[in-house]
C-alpha cells in the first residue's frame, strides 16, 4: 500500500469521525458547507455543497479544496489558506474581493465565503460556508445598469436619441439576440416599431406594425404586465402577424418576453426581447425588465413632451407670422401663398393647397400651392377647378365641415389621383375657410404617409384656417378699397378731363365764332368768284382761294367735332371723306414726329348711314394712339389708313396700322375696358378706346385689335352698310324744284363783312337783301318794311339772335317760320336747347354758296314747321299792315 493510499485512508477515517459528529448539523445549514483540514483537504461536505458544486461527497472527500477554485485563482488561494491556518479565526471572505467557485461542469459562479476554525482531536479544521451570489451580482449589475440608463436617458430630450439609447441599453443589459421598441398608435391601438437592435438589418423592422393585442408586445400592452413566452411560434395565446412570424423564424429566436411602457397610467408602447429557446426568464429578470420599462417610458414621455413643446413653439411662431401677415398683407395672392407655406411648416406636411371661391363661376380655383414641385403639378395635375360639391374640396366647401382622410389615394372623393400618386400624397385634411358666416375657400393639407390626424393637429389646422379666412377677407376688403380709391382717382381724372373738354369746348366755340366769320367771307366770296369768273387769268387763283378756305373751314369743323357733346345724328356718310378730314386735322403733328402717312382708300365704298362726327372721333382717337405709340419706336414710323368694301358681307372695313412697339397680350385683353390705361396717372383717362368701342357697336359694327409685340398694332373697324330708316332720309329741296327768286331778305350780323358777303351771294338769285348790325338795328328795319326771310347770327352784342327771335315772335309772329340762324357755335347747351325748341334751320359758319342757296330755298319752300293758334285780335289785315306776307299768317 502506497503512502498516498495511507493518507487517503486517514482522511476517510477523519471524515467518518466528523461526519458522525456534524452530519446532522451540516445538512440543515442553508449554505453549501465544506470542512477542510490543515493540509487543505476536504474532510466533509454537506448536501447543499454537493448541489452547488455538482460533486458527490465521495468525489471530494480527501481532495484538495483548490479543486473547487478556478484555476487562475488556485496558487493565490493556497497562499491565503496557509496564512489563515497560521492565525485561524472567524472571517468573512469576499468583502471588497471577487471570489469565484468552480463547478464540476467547469462553470464558474461568484461566491461569498465565511470561514470558521474549529479545534478537534485531530487538529484545527476550517468550516467554510459558501454562497452563490450570482443573482446578487446580477441584481447589482442590473441596478447599476438601470442607474446608468436612467442617467443617460435623463440627459437627452431628443426623441430619436432617446429611442436609440433605450434599445441599446436594454440589449446590453439582457444580452439577447433581438431587442425591439414599439410605440403605441392611440388612434388604432396598433404598435409601430421605432427602434431595434440585433444581428439582422434594422430596416426590416422599422415602421412595421403589430395589430392591437397581437404578439407578445400587444399582449403586454393589453394586460398591462410583462409577458413571457417560452416558444412564441407555438404559443396558442399569442397571435403573430405573418411578417413577424417570418422574421422570428429567419433570425432563430423563440423565447420572447415583453413589458409595457407606461407612465401615470398612460401606455406609450412596449419593449420586447427575443432569445434562443434555452433562455429562461426568472421572476428577477421580469422585475428587472419591468423596472427598465418604467425608466424607458419616463424617458420617452419626457422626450415626447419636450418635442411637443418645441413643435408647439415652432408652430406658434409660424402662426404668429401668419397673424402678422393678416395685419399687414394687402394682396390676396400674397396671403394665399403665405397660408399654404405656413400649413406645410406648421403640420410638417408634404404639401398644402388653397382653393378660393369664384362665386360668379360657382367654382373653386387653386390660388396657392406649397411643397409641390411646380413641374410635377403641371405635368400630373388633372384638376385645376372644382365645381361646388365636387371632390373633397368641393364637398367641404358646401358642407362647411372639415374632412379628414387617412389616404387620399384610397378615397374616391380625391379627384386628382395622378398627382396624388406622382407626389406620394396620402393622409389629407380639408378645412373650410369661414369668416362672418361666409365660406371663402378650402385649405387642403396633405401628408406623405397614410395615417389619422390627432386632435391636436385638427385643432391647429382649424386655428390656421380661421386666421387664413380673416387674412383673405382683409385682403379682399383692402383690394376693394384700393379699387374704389383707384376708381375715385380715375373719376377725378375723368372729371378733370371733362372739365378740360368743357373748357376746350367753350374756347373752341369762341375760336369758331371768331374764325368762322372771316372764313365765311372768304368762302362766300370764293363761291361768288366761281360764279362770276368762269374763264380768264383769275380762274385758277380763285380756285386755290376756295380750296384753301374750305380746308381751313374743315379743320375748324373737325376741332368742334372733337369737343361736341350732343346726341348722335345719323346721315349719309362717305367714310373716305371722314378719313381725309381726320388726316387734315392731325397731319401737322404727324409730320413733326416724322410719321409717314399713307392712305389706301377704296374708290368703290358705298355710303354709310352713320354719325360722321362720331366716326371722326373714332378715327382721330385711333390715329392719335398710334402716333403716341410710335414716339417710342425708331424710324421709319409709318401710319396707314386702309378702307375696303366687302359686298358679300355688306360691310365696310377700316384699318389703322402703325409700326409701333405692339401691345402685350396681357394688355390686349383689357384694351377696350373703361378707365384702363397704361399711361401714368393724369396723362390718360382710359376712356378713348372704350368710347371708340361703344361708338362702333352703336353703329352695329365691331372693333378689334391685332398685334404682336415688336410688330406694331392693327385696329380693325367693321361697319355695316345699311339703308337709312324710312322717313329719316336727309331733308332737302327736290333737285327739280325751281329756285325762288326776288325775295326780300334781312341779314343780321355784327360782322359787316359777313353780312355783305351773304348779301352778295343772295343777290346771285335775284333777292333783295338788306343788312343790319345787330338785333336792335334789325327791329328798326322791320318797323320800316316787311321781309320774306330773316337770316340772323346767334351771337351779337346787345340783342343777340335768340333775343331778336323772341322779339319777332312777339311783334311779327308769322315771320318766325321764315327765320334762319347763322352760327359758328353748336356746342353751347343753351344754343342747342334754343335751336331744338324753335326748330329753326341753321347755317353753320363757314358756309359756301351751294349750302346758302339750299337752306334759303328750303326755308322759303318749307311749310310752317310749327302750328300755333293765332293770337287773339290779330287778323290777316293786321299782318299785312305790319309788313308780313299774307300767305304766312300762321303763328310762330
Write a compact overview of the structure shown:
By secondary structure, the protein is an alpha+beta fold. It is 46% helix and 21% strand.
Could you explain the architecture of this structure?
Strands 1, 2, 3, 4, 5 and 6 form a six-stranded antiparallel beta sheet that branches. The C terminus is likely disordered. The protein is rod-shaped. The longest helix is centred in the middle third of the chain and has 78 residues. It has 892 residues and is an alpha+beta fold. Helix content is 46%, strand content 21%. It contains 25 helices and 30 strands. The termini are far apart.
Question: Topology of this protein?
Answer:
Elements: H1 3-26, E1 32-36, E2 42-45, H2 47-53, H3 57-60, H4 74-86, E3 91-93, E4 99-102, E5 108-120, E6 123-132, H5 134-154, H6 159-174, E7 178-184, E8 191-198, E9 209-210, H7 215-223, E10 227-229, H8 242-251, E11 255-263, E12 266-275, H9 283-328, H10 332-347, E13 351-358, E14 363-370, H11 374-380, E15 385-387, H12 391-399, E16 403-405, H13 417-423, E17 428-435, E18 438-446, H14 455-532, H15 539-563, E19 571-573, H16 575-592, E20 595-601, E21 608-610, H17 612-630, E22 637-646, E23 651-658, H18 665-668, H19 688-698, E24 702-707, E25 713-720, E26 744-748, H20 752-763, E27 768-772, H21 775-784, E28 789-793, H22 801-811, E29 819-823, H23 829-838, E30 842-844, H24 849-861, H25 876-881
Parallel strand pairs: 20-22, 26-27, 26-28, 28-29, 29-30
Antiparallel strand pairs: 1-2, 1-6, 3-5, 4-5, 5-6, 7-8, 7-12, 8-9, 10-11, 11-12, 13-14, 13-18, 14-15, 16-17, 17-18, 19-21, 22-23, 23-25, 24-25
Helix pairs in contact: 5-6, 5-9, 6-9, 9-10, 9-14, 10-14, 11-13, 14-15, 14-20, 15-16, 16-17, 17-19, 21-22
Amino acid at each position: 500500500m502506497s503512502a498516498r493510499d495511507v493518507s487517503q485512508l486517514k482522511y476517510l477515517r477523519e471524515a467518518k469521525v466528523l461526519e458522525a459528529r456534524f452530519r446532522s448539523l451540516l445538512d440543515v445549514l442553508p449554505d453549501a458547507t465544506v470542512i477542510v483540514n490543515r493540509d487543505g483537504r476536504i474532510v466533509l461536505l454537506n448536501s447543499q455543497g454537493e448541489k452547488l458544486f455538482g460533486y458527490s461527497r465521495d468525489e471530494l472527500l480527501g481532495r484538495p479544496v483548490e479543486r473547487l477554485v478556478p484555476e487562475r485563482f488556485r496558487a493565490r488561494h493556497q497562499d491565503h489558506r496557509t496564512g489563515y491556518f497560521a492565525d485561524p479565526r472567524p472571517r468573512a471572505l469576499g468583502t471588497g474581493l471577487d471570489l469565484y467557485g468552480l463547478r464540476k461542469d467547469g462553470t464558474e459562479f461568484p461566491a461569498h465565503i465565511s470561514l470558521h476554525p474549529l479545534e478537534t482531536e485531530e487538529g484545527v479544521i476550517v468550516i467554510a460556508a459558501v454562497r452563490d451570489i450570482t443573482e446578487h451580482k446580477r441584481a447589482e449589475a442590473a441596478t447599476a445598469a438601470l442607474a446608468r440608463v436612467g442617467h443617460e436617458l435623463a440627459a437627452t430630450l431628443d426623441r430619436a436619441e432617446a429611442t436609440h439609447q433605450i434599445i441599446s441599453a436594454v440589449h446590453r443589459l439582457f444580452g439577447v439576440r433581438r431587442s425591439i421598441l414599439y410605440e403605441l398608435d392611440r388612434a388604432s391601438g396598433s404598435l409601430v416599431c421605432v427602434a431595434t437592435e440585433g444581428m439582422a438589418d434594422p430596416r426590416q423592422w422599422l415602421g412595421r406594425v403589430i395589430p392591437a393585442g397581437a404578439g407578445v408586445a400587444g399582449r403586454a400592452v393589453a394586460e398591462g404586465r410583462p409577458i413571457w413566452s417560452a416558444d412564441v411560434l407555438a404559443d396558442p395565446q399569442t397571435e403573430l402577424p405573418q411578417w413577424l412570424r417570418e422574421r422570428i423564424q429567419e433570425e432563430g429566436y423563440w423565447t420572447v418576453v415583453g413589458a409595457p411602457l407606461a407612465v401615470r397610467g398612460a401606455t406609450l408602447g412596449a419593449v420586447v426581447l427575443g432569445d434562443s429557446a434555452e433562455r429562461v426568464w426568472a421572476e428577477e429578470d421580469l422585475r428587472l425588465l419591468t423596472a427598465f420599462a418604467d425608466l424607458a417610458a419616463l424617458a420617452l414621455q419626457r422626450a415626447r413632451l419636450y418635442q411637443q413643446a418645441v413643435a408647439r413653439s415652432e408652430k406658434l411662431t409660424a402662426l404668429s407670422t401668419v397673424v402678422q401677415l393678416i395685419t399687414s398683407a394687402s394682396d390676396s395672392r400674397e396671403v394665399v401663398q403665405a397660408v399654404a407655406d405656413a400649413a406645410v411648416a406648421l403640420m410638417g406636411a408634404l404639401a398644402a393647397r388653397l382653393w378660393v371661391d369664384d362665386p360668379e363661376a360657382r367654382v373653386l380655383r387653386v390660388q396657392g400651392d406649397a411643397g409641390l414641385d411646380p413641374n410635377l403639378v403641371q405635368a400630373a395635375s388633372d384638376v385645376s377647378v372644382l365645381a361646388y360639391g365636387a371632390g373633397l374640396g368641393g364637398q367641404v366647401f358646401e358642407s362647411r365641415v372639415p374632412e379628414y382622410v387617412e389616404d387620399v389615394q384610397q378615397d374616391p372623393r380625391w379627384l386628382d389621383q395622378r398627382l396624388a400618386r406622382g407626389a406620394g400624397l396620402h393622409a389629407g385634411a380639408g378645412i373650410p375657410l369661414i369668416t362672418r358666416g361666409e365660406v371663402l375657400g378650402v385649405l387642403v393639407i396633405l401628408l406623405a404617409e397614410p395615417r389619422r390626424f390627432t386632435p391636436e393637429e385638427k385643432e391647429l389646422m382649424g386655428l390656421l384656417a380661421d386666421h387664413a379666412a380673416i387674412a383673405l377677407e382683409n385682403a379682399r376688403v383692402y383690394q376693394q378699397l384700393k379699387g374704389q380709391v383707384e376708381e375715385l382717382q380715375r373719376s377725378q381724372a375723368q372729371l378733370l378731363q371733362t372739365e378740360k373738354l368743357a373748357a376746350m369746348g367753350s374756347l373752341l366755340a369762341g375760336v369758331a365764332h371768331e374764325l368762322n366769320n372771316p372764313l365765311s367771307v372768304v368762302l362766300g366770296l370764293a363761291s361768288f368768284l366761281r360764279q362770276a369768273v368762269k374763264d380768264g387769268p383769275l380762274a385758277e387763283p380763285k380756285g386755290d382761294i376756295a380750296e384753301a378756305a374750305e380746308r381751313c373751314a374743315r379743320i375748324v369743323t373737325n376741332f368742334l367735332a372733337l369737343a361736341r357733346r350732343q346726341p348722335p345724328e345719323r346721315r349719309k356718310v362717305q367714310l373716305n371723306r371722314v378719313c381725309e378730314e381726320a388726316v387734315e386735322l392731325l397731319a401737322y403733328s404727324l409730320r413733326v414726329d416724322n410719321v409717314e402717312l399713307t392712305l389706301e382708300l377704296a374708290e368703290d365704298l358705298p355710303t354709310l348711314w352713320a354719325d360722321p362726327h362720331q366716326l371722326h372721333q373714332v378715327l382721330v382717337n385711333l390715329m392719335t394712339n398710334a402716333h403716341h405709340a410710335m414716339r417710342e419706336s425708331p424710324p421709319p414710323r409709318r401710319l396707314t389708313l386702309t378702307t375696303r368694301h366687302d359686298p358679300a358681307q355688306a360691310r365696310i372695313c377700316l384699318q389703322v396700322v402703325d409700326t409701333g412697339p405692339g401691345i402685350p397680350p396681357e394688355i390686349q385683353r383689357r384694351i377696350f375696358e373703361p378707365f384702363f390705361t397704361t399711361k401714368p396717372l393724369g396723362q390718360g383717362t382710359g376712356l378713348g378706346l372704350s368710347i371708340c368701342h361703344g361708338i362702333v357697336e352703336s353703329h352695329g359694327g365691331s372693333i378689334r385689335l391685332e398685334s404682336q409685340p415688336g410688330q406694331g398694332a392693327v385696329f380693325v373697324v367693321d361697319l355695316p352698310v345699311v339703308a337709312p330708316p324710312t322717313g329719316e332720309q336727309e331733308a332737302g329741296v327736290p333737285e327739280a324744284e325751281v329756285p325762288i327768286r326776288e325775295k326780300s331778305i334781312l341779314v343780321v350780323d355784327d360782322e359787316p363783312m359777313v353780312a355783305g358777303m351773304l348779301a352778295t351771294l343772295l343777290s346771285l338769285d335775284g333777292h333783295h337783301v338788306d343788312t343790319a348790325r345787330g338785333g336792335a338795328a334789325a327791329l328798326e328795319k322791320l318797323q320800316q318794311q316787311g321781309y320774306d326771310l330773316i337770316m340772323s347770327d346767334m351771337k351779337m352784342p346787345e340783342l343777340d339772335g335768340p333775343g331778336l327771335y323772341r322779339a319777332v315772335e312777339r311783334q311779327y309772329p308769322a315771320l318766325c317760320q321764315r327765320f334762319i340762324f347763322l352760327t359758328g357755335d353748336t356746342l353751347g347747351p343753351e344754343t342747342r336747347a334754343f335751336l331744338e325748341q324753335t326748330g329753326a334751320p341753321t347755317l353753320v359758319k363757314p358756309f359756301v354758296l351751294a349750302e346758302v342757296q339750299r337752306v334759303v330755298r328750303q326755308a322759303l319752300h318749307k311749310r310752317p314747321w310749327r302750328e300755333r293758334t293765332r293770337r287773339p285780335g290779330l287778323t290777316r289785315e293786321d299782318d299785312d299792315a305790319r309788313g308780313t306776307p299774307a300767305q304766312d299768317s300762321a303763328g310762330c
